[in-house]
Write a structure and sequence with these properties.
Blueprint: E1 26-30, E2 35-40, H1 43-55, H2 80-95, E3 101-112, E4 115-124, E5 127-136
Antiparallel strand pairs: 1-2, 3-4, 4-5
C-alpha cells in the first residue's frame, strides 16, 4: 500500500514569534592557573570564545560538533600565498558559527623561515579583538 503525505493548510510558525538574544554569561577560565575563576559575559567571554575556536582542531574531538573549531589540516607545507588565502577562508568559516562574531578583517601575514604568522581583527558585537594564528610551512 503506497504511503501518502498529509495535504492541507500550512502553519506559519513565525507568526507572533519574537527572537531574543540570550545573555553570554559563561564560565571564565584562567589559562595560567588552568582553572575556572568565575563567570563573565560580554567582551571577556568573546575573547575567550575566539581563543578557544582558534585552539580547537576541527573534526578531531568528539566533544565538539563538526562545525566548531579551526581546520588547520592541509595548510602545513604549502606555498605561503596559498596557505594565507586558505587560512583566511578557514578563519571566516570557523567564526561563522558564532552569531556574536561579525567579521574577520585586517588580515595580514608574514613569513619567517618555515613559519607563516597571520594577524587579523575579529569584529564582534562587543568590540574588536586582535588575534594571530601561526602555520608551519
Amino acid at each position: 500500500m503506497p504511503m501518502t503525505l498529509p495535504v492541507g493548510g500550512m502553519v506559519n510558525i513565525s507568526q507572533g514569534v519574537e527572537l531574543e538574544s540570550q545573555p553570554t554569561l559563561t564560565w571564565l577560565v584562567d589559562p595560567s592557573r588552568t582553572s575556572i575563576i568565575g563567570t563573565a559575559e560580554g567582551a571577556d567571554v568573546m575573547k575567550q570564545a575566539v581563543e578557544i575556536i582558534l585552539s580547537v582542531q576541527r573534526f578531531k574531538w568528539q566533544i565538539y560538533s563538526g562545525n566548531f573549531g579551526m581546520d588547520y589540516r592541509g595548510l602545513i607545507g604549502g606555498n605561503p600565498g596559498v596557505v594565507a588565502s586558505n587560512l583566511l577562508r578557514r578563519l571566516r568559516d570557523a567564526f561563522s558559527v558564532d552569531d556574536r562574531i561579525l567579521s574577520v578583517d585586517n588580515f595580514a601575514y608574514t613569513v619567517d623561515g618555515d613559519s607563516l604568522t597571520a594577524s587579523f581583527t575579529v569584529r564582534t558585537v562587543y568590540g574588536d579583538i586582535q588575534e594571530t594564528a601561526e602555520v608551519i610551512l
